[in-house]
Amino acid sequence: MLETIASAGAGFYTGAEDVARALYIRALKDVPPDVREAIEGAHQRETHERAQKILTLVVRNVQIAEEHRMLVCQDTGTPIYYVGLGTRLHVDGARLATAIRDGVERATREHPLRSSVCHPITRANPQTNTGYRIPVIHWDFVPDADHVDMLCVPKGSGSENMSFLKMLNPADGVDGIRRYVLESVVEAGANPCPPCIIGIGIGGTSDVCVALAKKASVRKLGTKNPDPALAALEEELFAAVNHLGIGPQGIGGDTTALAVHIEHAYTHITQNPVAINMQCWRGLRAHARLHADGRSEIGT
Ligand code: SF4
Q1: Is the dihedral of CA 221, 227, 232, 234 positive or negative?
Q2: Residue 289 β-bridge partners
Q3: With a 6 A CB cut-off, is 280 part of the ligand 1 pocket?
Q4: SS3 content of the chain, % helix, strand, coil (to 5)
Q5: Cα–Cα distance list, 227 to 233, 258, 264 (Å)
Q6: 85-132 per-position pLDDT tens digit
Q7: pTM to 2 decimal places
Q8: Is the peptide bond before 32 cis (omega within 30 degrees of 0)?
Q9: To test ligand 1's pocket by mutation, which of 31, 59, 157, 284 has the most ligand atoms within 8 angstroms of CB?
Q10: Is the minimum distance from the CB of 62 to ligand 1 under 6 angstroms?
Q11: What torsion, rounded to 10 degrees, do the Cα atoms 71, 72, 77, 81 define?
Q12: Which of 150, 163, 212, 235 has its CA 20 to 30 A from that of 198?
């Protein structure tokens, strides 16, 4: 029996452009509920007076952005989209990529937003927040779904500049991974605007490992790696990172991380790659679900 596969109509692509535009702006203005909850919890638990004052300012910053419909932080970031294609919906991927790019350009022009994207050598800024290979789009599949999921992450540079990769030796084992994560967080210090969501990639090849670390950093807070051994390592590293005492904005305190997430892949028998990617406290992300006729639901 033939399976029924829906086809995305013209309305889908105009809808996708509108959604890409809306998500970019929303992710810059609206801190997701799980991140707010984590900040408020950390604020209540923090025992260092100066750190608590910083967290009071962070909570107020989020409120002011909401009250005045302002950006939470000045950095409009590098626009990154994670697109999950339902396998029961026929979509023209190239057309969808163009719609996303057009949405970013419209958000930049119509809001307006600062353009943070430039040529890597000439530093020419097209003032669109787009350019060759930007926005970054990661493609994935959603089995048996007739919709498309879109997650927008405008990645701030302070945290993105604190990205790390090491091809450890298998003999370094899990202890080597633990050590490298903690050394990287110490090296990052105040630069990624802690408290951070620390994404860790373990395994794969070098490129996959780095992509996994980014994916881990944008996972919803409160979620765990489905592998119990890795979930336990997430918990252990979360406690260890907060024990470092770097604290909010690096001024000392109990709250260096809001969460530690790990994403993993199998790797080569002679490799032991580990990567770290951090999200600053504002935890930028916004999610939407698109349907074949262009309808969408925007959430987080
Ligand atoms: S790291 Fe985050 S909070 Fe800090 S300046 Fe960049 S975007 Fe803003």
Answers
A1: negative
A2: 149, 297
A3: yes
A4: 40, 25, 35
A5: 10, 21, 9
A6: 999 999 999 999 999 999 999 999 999 999 999 999 999 999 999 999
A7: 0.96
A8: no
A9: 157
A10: no
A11: -90
A12: 150
